[in-house]
Amino acid sequence: MPVTLASYVAGMRRRDPDEGHRASTPLELLFDLTFVVAVAHVAGELAHSVVADEIGHGVVAYVMTFFAIWWAWMNFTWFASAYDCDDALYRVMTALQMAGVLVLAAGVGSAFEDSDFKTVVVGYVLMRVAMVGQWLRAAAADSEGRPTARRYVVGTLVVQVAWTLRLLLPEALGVVSFLVLVAAELVVPLWAEIPRRTPWHPGHIAERYGLFTIIVLGESVLAASNAISADFSSGGLTLDLVVLGCGGLILLFGMWWIYFLHDTGEALRVRPDQDFTWGYAHYAIFAAAVAVGAGLEASTEFGLHPVSASATSIGMVLAVAVGVYLVLVALIHGRLSPTHRPNLVQAGTAAVTLLVVALTVARASLPWAVLSEGVVVAALVVVAARVQTRV
């Protein structure tokens, strides 16, 4: 049988949002793997900024670079839930986005150290232009969804031109122009979906977000592992670093437990109107989870050699990151299901307790403060799980 172009290009088809057993594809998992690299880079740079006592500068650079990572990942995820023909052209276009992720990751260091976002923007625009190609295919193949797809093409292209022109602006306008363009990016889907909503699979979306949550929590695994490894590389075990490693693992496990306490896929199926709120809120959830890993890495650095930052400031970074994560996870679960609203009160109480621990225990011992914060999260898990059982 002769090999023709049609053998490799199947044409973009719309997926059935009600199909059973919809799971992440091997290509989506490979796609996520490239984001592990980018996430590791931003977490490492944020940790360096924290130990150097340049928290303000580091947070600004972190918020900007992580938005590029999250937004590119999220747009591909929702598109793939609606259109995934998995033919050769689709795979090539996805590979182009993966290349953009790696380019972006290569520019993270310059963004943090010199506020030079050129490489980050190049990688980001490369990913977004590749998505334009995907939407063009959807517009050509799906007559019903064509108006929506065309709006995505136009809106995305216009904003990418604006991101490129932003590089010509003086540094003093950097933050303001960033906020304006972030708002533009967030508005594009809201505007594009007006003619006809793009179909998506609740179970698939819930699984994709769950997998990325595990990826960002992986930074906490790495940080806890580094704490234990540092003991051996420095010639033996020390109680402080063992306590730090254990505290980091408890934090990780508690944060994971809280996120997966509820069946998000079923909740999204019942409340599809929450798609934008739920999807957009995850920027802060993912960013907070990565910041926890950075805080743990900074805590390890503090225990190994003298650093500029104080134990209290590092403990506060970690407490704020964990607190934001807990409150937002409880909030989005509450919006999906009214029976989960009490968890927001519990999460808020835990967040306040974390801040108190950071301001008191960290001054005496940062490792024991980390372990104490882990105990607070573990206690929240126990309370939340009991409430869930009664519901």
Summarize this structure as a short list of keywords or feature phrases.
391 residues; globular; single chain; 0% strand; mainly alpha
Distinct helical segment count: 15
Low-confidence stretches: 1-8
Strand content: under 5%
Question: How far apart, in Å, are the first and last alpha carbons?
Answer: 59 Å
Largest sheet: none
Structure description:
By secondary structure, the chain is mostly helical. Helix content is 80%, strand content 0%. The chain has helices at residues 5-8, 26-51, 55-82, 88-106, 108-114, 118-141, 146-166, 174-192, 202-233, 239-259, 264-270, 275-304, 311-336, 342-364, 366-390. Helix 3 runs parallel beside helix 6, helix 7 packs antiparallel against helix 8 and helix 10 (239-259) packs antiparallel against helix 12 (275-304). The radius of gyration is 22 Å and the shape is globular. Mean pLDDT is 87; it is low at 1-8.
